[in-house]
Amino acid sequence: MLNTDKWEVFCLNDLFEISAGKYQSKDEYNDGVTPYVTASATNNGIAQRINLSPDFKGNVITTGKVGCTAFYQVEDFCASSDVNIFRALKFTMNSKIGLFITSIINFSENYKWTYGRQCRVGDSKEIIIKLPISYDDKQNPIIDNVNKFNKKGYVPDFKLIEEYISNLENEEKENNDSIEKSLQTKNLNNTTFLETENWKEFYLHKLFNITMGNGIDANKTTDFDPKFNYVSRDSNGNGVVGFIDEINGEIPFPEGSMSVALGGSFLGSCFIQRKPFYTAQNVAVLQDKIATSIYVKLFISSLVRNECRIKYLAFGRELNSNIRKYFTIKLPVLQDSKGIVLDKEKVFSDDGFVPDWIYIDDIVKSLPYADRI
Q1: pTM reported for the whole predicted model
Q2: Alpha-carbon gap, residue 101 to 107, rounded angstroms
Q3: Rounded to whole angstroms, how far apart are CA atoms 300 and 175?
Q4: Does residue 280 contact residue 263 with C-beta atoms inside 8 Å?
Q5: Shortest CA distance to 366 belongs to which of 193, 180, 190?
Q6: Could you give the residue ranges of the DSSP H alpha helices within the chain?
Q7: CB-CB contact of 279 with 215 (8 Å)
Q8: pLDDT per position as a tens digit, 120-136
Q9: Phi and psi torsions of 23, nearest 5°
Q10: What pLDDT digit, counting tens, does each position of 308-335 carry?
Q11: What is the C-alpha separation between 267 and 312, in angstroms, rounded?
Q12: What is the mean pLDDT of the chain?
């Protein structure tokens, strides 16, 4: 585990020569062998391989203007004008250093940049990242008097960076067997068929306390001393798109709460947050009225996503005005030998129905891979 407490800030413009890619018209090339790097966030940014000679040498980092997704490029390549290219001039780049720095950029920058706020060459030159620094034998920071990498003279510890990536690679080789075992499940013979005809409808606001999130814009966040997850309207990574500093005047939501994307392309993305968090715009937060298990929350999060696919529409009928009033899901209800149990207090339903939390728990626990949760 890396201790980042003593890392220092470095501006990417002090570490790299940063330039833009080169526009290529589609009628100028066909399929070939040269990687064509674009602003794609997948496949190392390579959209296809083309039959043009490479415009750029490999052993560099590239980022897309949309999303600022960083990749290390091994091969010589062509790049679209939507790509920023980072070439090391003040230190010797290699794959280990490249992978380390791309991870830092992706961790700290991806959530800040969108179609509406693109990261161009000028923006890239202002990006600040934190890196481990070099120390002498007496554990004092090594200071470079010409301020080659940092205005305070700090020098990145490239040796530590390389050793760290090497250790990760060795651990991966050693742990292949344990990773394979971790993906096995004992719940292989589940033939349960859910009878949903007698399930009853519940308003979501009767099951959970629903509040709008913090509504913090990404460009208002920093990550110099990060303490809290930053949850946005994303369908990947549990909705967590960053790890940010504490923000004065904003109260983080507690772990165990659920986040729901209220609009956009990933409308209805619903996740259980395992650590305290802040939220971006258009994210709601569900908090327990009574304590429920992670299995119950996983069940409900799946129902929320399903209901949104059927009844709601991104950029049309979104959740903002509906989730705290009209949003409903169907759940199995508590029964005894006499039939359905009704709650006179009507805590969960205006009709007095009570969700059968234990049955829901058992449903999820019986599913394949539930024993790995």
Answers
A1: 0.66
A2: 10
A3: 34
A4: no
A5: 190
A6: 12-15, 95-109, 121-124, 158-174, 176-182, 204-207, 294-311, 357-365
A7: yes
A8: 999 999 999 999 999 99
A9: -65, 135
A10: 988 888 777 888 888 999 999 999 999 9
A11: 8
A12: 91
